[in-house]
Predict the structure.
Amino acid sequence: MNRWILLCDLDAFFASVEILDRPELRGRPVIVGGLGPRGVVATCSYEARAMGVRSAMPMVKARELCPQGVFLPPRPQRYRELSRKVFDIFHRFAQNVEPCSIDEAYLEVVGDGPSIAGAIQEAVGEATGLSLSIGGGPNKLLAKVASQLAKPGGIICIPEGKGAEVLAPLPVDILPGVGPKREALLKGQGFSTVGDLQQAGLERIQALLGERAGRDLFEKAWGKGPDHLASPGLPRSISAEETFPADIPYRDVPSELQKLSQKLSARLQTYGLVAYTLTLKIRFPPFQTSADRSPPRGACGMKRPSSPWPEISLPSISREDGIPGGCASWACASAGWSGKGREGSSSPSSDRSEELPEDSWRGTGGRERRPPSRRAPSRPGGLSIP
Ligand code: TTP
Ligand code: MG
Ligand code: MG
């Protein structure tokens, strides 16, 4: 196999950077995130993960689980600086790079996959001191799964034709798209491993999940996935969000949303984009999140980013949900667009890692992640599943 897709993902990225800059923290449970009463964990070192701490977990819970932890606020600028260095290395080695986030990208490489992966890992380590895990395969699905198995600090490459065999003994939630709900549904029907899904046959999976989702999952179970990277370009959405230290009264929500929409508008402008849909999310006490999305180019009155946005249709949210307590604890506005929506001359960065919103470390959108129990032991320097 001469052409490989590699998924490169830094290990415990924000926490690793903190440890890099303060080596005395090495070996300690380091937890990075919002330190206020509403803060959530952005990420944590593997030592903290051993204590049960996870990304997107409320910081209060993390403190309970790991009272001896070192709790640090995020430093987005420093993370971006290191991310840029790492992405420069990716571009040196790869024909194509598809960024997925600030610490992660798919690379298309030609040659001996495992040794190219080893060279990338080494170059990143030398240039930044950061640990990188790499999964390789003939397509994005297998590269992604392999990268999960390779964490932390390993390389696992799955050759062409071996995907189904490697996947068979793994738990169903190794497959992208199988979250806690779907995992419970599948397990309830006796499908614990990917091999169970392979054996079930397409029709049974479709009967359970519907025609399209069933086909999609069945194909993944057999190791099929996209074998080309998305063309370099734009992120699919941009968002701005705010977690308030204390609940705000409902009458203040419109002005807060105005501020968020201005932030968003500025970001759209940076990329020369015209928004296509607008989504609003507001969290009401105790922890109820309401969302409202405009139809394409529709009622929310999406306009050119240069003009201030018109009023946001808050009332439709409030009527549906009755606003218990009459106040909000969190708000998020995001915008998406069609490929055609881009304007004129400004040239956006093709590096989507740039898109991490300043405040995304608050992690409000993420789901708690699972313990890395399924991770196979990996050895640095290269392991290839024969
Ligand atoms: P990930 O690559 O998902 O996680 P990680 O690098 O911390 O750990 P690993 O890859 O070894 O499992 O995310 C990269 C960074 O993005 C992470 O260091 C912090 C940030 N992040 C958040 O701010 N909130 C989140 O909910 C998640 C998942 C990540
Ligand atoms: Mg990572
Ligand atoms: Mg990542």
About this structure: The first helix runs from residue 13 to 21. Residues 164-221 form a domain with the DNA polymerase; domain 1 fold (CATH 1.10.150.20). Confidence is low (pLDDT under 50) at residues 297-327, 337-386. Residues 9-10, 13, 103-104 surround magnesium ion (ligand 2) (CB under 6 Å).
